[in-house]
Structures are given as structure tokens and as C-alpha cells.
Design a protein that fits this description.
190 residues, eight-stranded mixed β-sheet
């Protein structure tokens, strides 16, 4: 998968995605993924070396990559993009051409910015749809993560069914390019 960097102007300020560097970003990510807010990320007990190893593996993978999100130039969120025909959902659903998988995590913060998480997921989705080959985004959040289900719905995701993954019961959901455009009023066509 080809890395790229992009900036999206939002109501909360500019949001930029850049390829994650596991060597320089792992300490920051370790703080994020072990924070109680990140319970659904399932890395609560991870050591720094575990996080670095995980993101080194993702960086080396052909069908999976990770990006660090910046808000006004400061690290603020994480996004992973994967090809579900090869990673994460193999054998759990029948992927279509143009499917791409996604995970995202906002950093823990003492400062609440109204609309921030929704701006992040919207920017992440716009970034994914910048690739003209992507027609549908696939997510599989934990069925108990009602906050992310509401965010997903706000940007156009439609739940299909619950699936059993080795680490969780997940809600398999899809968002087509058209649904995203309708839900957000954003055009994804160049």
C-alpha cells in the first residue's frame, strides 16, 4: 500500500495524516493505546516494546499501514488502513473489489474540543476515499463500543452483522463512497 500525506481543513482546524514511523512514534503511541480511554484498542497491558513491534510489523506489511494524525501540527490521532481480503477480516466476509479496512483512535486529552472526534473520522474517511480505487470502507468495532457506532453512522456506515473475531465480537459495518458523501456533504471526486 502506498503511503501518502494529506491535510484536511475542518471546523476544529487542520488535520494532517502522515505515515507513522514506528521508531520515533512508538513511545507516543504506547501512551495512547494503554490509556483507559483506549480500552477497545485492546493494548492496555502492552509494553513499549510490544507497541513498537506491532507497528514495525504493520510498517513492513504489504496490505496494512498506519498513519499518525496531527491537529494543528501536534500528534492527536492514529489511523490504520488495511486490505480486508488479506488482513483482519480474512474468511469473515466476502470482500468486494474496492474494499478498504480502517481503524482509528483519538489521543487521550485533558482538553475537550467539541466535534473533534467527528472531524477526525470525517478526515480519515476523506483520506481513504482520495484513492479512486476505494469504493467502500469496512470497519469491525467491538459490539459494545456504542460511541464509535454513533460516529460511524454519522459518516455513513451501515451495520451489516455481528461477527466473531478471535479477540472480540465485532459489528461488521460498511460505508460506500456515496453514503459518505450524502452523510457529510463532502465530495470525494477530484
Amino acid at each position: 500500500m502506498s503511503p501518502s500525506t494529506t491535510t484536511t481543513r475542518t471546523a476544529v482546524g487542520p488535520l494532517t495524516l502522515r505515515p507513522l514511523d514506528p521508531r520515533t512514534d512508538s513511545e507516543l503511541l504506547h501512551r495512547w493505546v494503554t490509556d483507559p480511554k483506549a480500552a477497545f484498542w485492546m493494548m492496555q497491558d502492552a509494553k513499549l516494546q510490544d507497541v513498537e513491534r506491532e507497528y514495525m510489523a504493520i510498517a513492513a506489511a504489504e496490505h496494512h499501514d498506519a498513519f499518525l494524525g496531527l491537529h494543528d501540527g501536534e500528534p492527536a490521532f492514529l489511523m490504520e488502513r488495511y486490505e480486508p481480503a488479506h488482513v483482519e477480516l480474512v474468511g469473515l466476509y466476502e470482500p468486494l473489489p474496492g474494499d478498504i479496512g480502517m481503524h482509528f483512535l483519538t489521543a487521550p486529552s485533558e482538553i475537550r474540543i467539541p466535534g473533534f472526534t467527528r472531524a477526525v473520522i470525517t478526515a480519515v474517511m476523506a483520506f481513504l476515499f482520495e484513492d479512486p480505487a476505494v469504493e467502500r470502507v469496512v470497519v469491525e468495532p467491538d459490539v459494545r463500543n456504542t460511541a464509535v457506532h454513533a460516529l460511524n453512522e454519522a459518516v455513513g456506515f451501515v451495520p451489516e452483522r455481528e461477527i466473531d473475531k478471535p479477540e472480540k465480537k465485532a459489528l461488521l459495518s460498511f460505508c460506500t463512497r456515496e453514503r459518505f458523501e450524502r452523510a457529510t456533504g463532502r465530495s470525494t471526486r477530484a
